[in-house]
C-alpha cells in the first residue's frame, strides 16, 4: 500500500489512501476534488523516494468533505498588580479531506 508525506498550509501530513485529515482552509467547496502537488516523501512497500525538497512526479488527490472551525483557543494576558488583563482568542478555519489516491 502506498503512503506519502504531503505539505499543506505550512504543515506536513502523513497520508494513506482512505485517510481523513483536517488541513488549513482550502478554497474548495464540499464534494470538490483537490490535488496536493507538494509531496515530500513517497513510500510503496520497500521502495522509498524522498524529495529534495519535493518529488516532482508524485501527487496526492482527495475529496473535500467539509469546511469547519476548530475548537476555540483562548489566550489570557495578565500582568500582576497592574490591573491589566486581556482575553483574546480565535478558532482556526479548517478543511476535512478524504484522501483518495497516492501516486508516484
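^ C-alpha cells above, recovered residues below v
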Amino acid at each position: 500500500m502506498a503512503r506519502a508525506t504531503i505539505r499543506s498550509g505550512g504543515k506536513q501530513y502523513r497520508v494513506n489512501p482512505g485517510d481523513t485529515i483536517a488541513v488549513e482552509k482550502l478554497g474548495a467547496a464540499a464534494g470538490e476534488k483537490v490535488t496536493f502537488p507538494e509531496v515530500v516523501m513517497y513510500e510503496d512497500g520497500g521502495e522509498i523516494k524522498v524529495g529534495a525538497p519535493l518529488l516532482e512526479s508524485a501527487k496526492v488527490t482527495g475529496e473535500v468533505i467539509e469546511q469547519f472551525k476548530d475548537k476555540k483557543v483562548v489566550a489570557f494576558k495578565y500582568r500582576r498588580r497592574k490591573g491589566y488583563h486581556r482575553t483574546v482568542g480565535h478558532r482556526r478555519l479548517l478543511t476535512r479531506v478524504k484522501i483518495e489516491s497516492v501516486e508516484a
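Residues 10 and 24 are 9 Å apart (CA to CA).
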